[in-house]
Amino acid sequence: MLVRRHERLVFAVARSYRLSDEDLGDVFQEVFTALVRGIPRLRDGRALVRWLSSTTERMARATALRRRREAALAASGERADATAPPSADSPVGADLELLEERALVRLAFDALPARCRELLHALFYEDPAPSYAALSRRLRVPVGSLGPTRARCFERLREAYDRLRADEPGITAASRLTSTDESDPRRTRSGAQRFGFVEGPA
Amino acid sequence: MRTPRRTAHLTTRSVLDYLEGRAGAADRRRLEEHLAGPCPACRALVREIGWVTELMQTDRLPPVPEALRRRAIESFRPLPAPAATRGSGWVAARLLFDSITAELPASVRRAVGEARGLRYALGDDSLELEVELEEPGVLTLRGRLEAPEPGQYRVDVATGAERFSAWPDASGIFAIERVPPGAASVTVAGPAERYRLPELTL
Question: Which CATH number fits domain B91-201: 3.40.1000, 2.60.40, 3.90.1070, 2.70.98?
Answer without folding.
Answer: 2.60.40
